[in-house]
Amino acid sequence: MGDFEVKEEDLAGRIGKLETSHGILETPAFFPVVNVLRKEISIKDVMAVGFNSIITNAYILKKNNIVKQDIHKELDFNSIIMTDSGAYQILEYGNIEANNREIVEYQNQIKPDIAVILDVPTGKLEDREEAKMTVDETLRRAKDVESIINTENIIWTHPIQGGRFLDLLQYSAVEANKREKYKLLALGSPTVLMEKYDYDTLIDMIFTVRSSISRGKPLHLFGGGLPHLIPFAVALGVDSFDSASYILYARDNRYITRSRTLKLEEIDSFPCSCPVCSRYTPQELLEMDESERTRLLAIHNLYKILEEIRETKIAIKEGRLFEYLQEKAFSHPSVYSAFKRLLKYAEYLEKYDPRVKGEIKGLFLYDENSIKRPEIIRHHRYLDLIKPMHDKAIVICGDKFAQPFILDPFILKIVKEKYMEADIYIAYPFYGLIPVLVSESYPLSQFEIPKSLSESVIRISSDKANSILKAKYKKVELIECENSKLHIMPI
């Protein structure tokens, strides 16, 4: 129980399979929050959208005596159920009428597939000592119940706290990672950041946690329910999410798209073809009874979240997650800021990005951000490491030549005549220099670039080429470089 197998990887993200008592959970996965006290949307509605996993609150179930024994039978849901512990209620109200051991024993009794101890969330605490208390108390509580948790049928989750204090977050993650009985780790308290559009800090938090724990342990993100942020979290290594955003937004007449949220009153026509949007107009929804409108909006919002999860998986399988993040980045200035913050961790993303992928896809290179993608980072590292065969380099500016460069008759003629006396390169945007003799290798001839390049791409590419040439060669001869996009300096 709790075995996790990675099937596909791209950047630091992956598609995996987590074994649970009620089937295999394919990650990245989303758990819609279901509050059984509210009847706006039923579990059957959630299932009909296409979800085979839900999360509900064990504290609410216990307090209201709703589930007594088998949660799957009593909720009539024979698939994967995760139960949260009541920590959200602590965050909202300061305390609850149950302690950690009671909540754990209750979850042992009702047997969800995945359960969570009663942690103490950091939330939006600004005082470091108070934040440290939430970390220490959560760690203490997790250790306190290790002897009583049922690990035979249940995957137990160890929350990681610390909030925006990254050193506390790292300490919490490292300590939680040592607890072998906890097969799932979870980053808590991101909701307050998302409400403020503070996505930069969230990116830092996810990186801090994911880089501090074992790659073999899946990572859950509590409250991660915004489609435009899901692929960024996945790229850093988050494996599952939960959120009530779909229903909370619906109650407020907010309509989720994969790039932003809209107010229902401001929409003339729906940009979606889900069953709700195909059947109704915005005006018809506005004229409905509030409970039915909320239900239908919630169903639509779930379709958008599921669509985003599926699209992210497709991007991973195709090896184009970086390009997908670039597309998503322009949905909102805060999302673009998150993308730029993620690029701070480009070396980390490259470390876990697979070198060999199944079906080769050509790279789409757009701007200076593309220089931070793993394939380009590796190429630049390769240029730094290769030892020159000669003290002279011949650089052919590649603007006029098609890939693969080695097959161009003009270049091939130079290679045949000169390869015994000089190392021969193609100068090209993004790559800087491409050694001609390996120019057929992926991805040195499998890429597309814009016809018009930014000054920063030209400058970075030129600087990389010139620094390599200056460091390794006594003489550099330039060919076809008079009107080149790059500025290569002869030696």
Automatic annotation (TrEMBL):
Zn(2+) binds at residues 272, 274, 277. GO terms for cellular component: cytoplasm. Its EC number is 2.4.2.48. Residues 13-333 form the tRNA-guanine(15) transglycosylase-like domain. Keywords: Glycosyltransferase, Metal-binding, Transferase, tRNA processing, Zinc. Pfam families: TGT. This is tRNA-guanine(15) transglycosylase. It comes from Acidianus ambivalens.
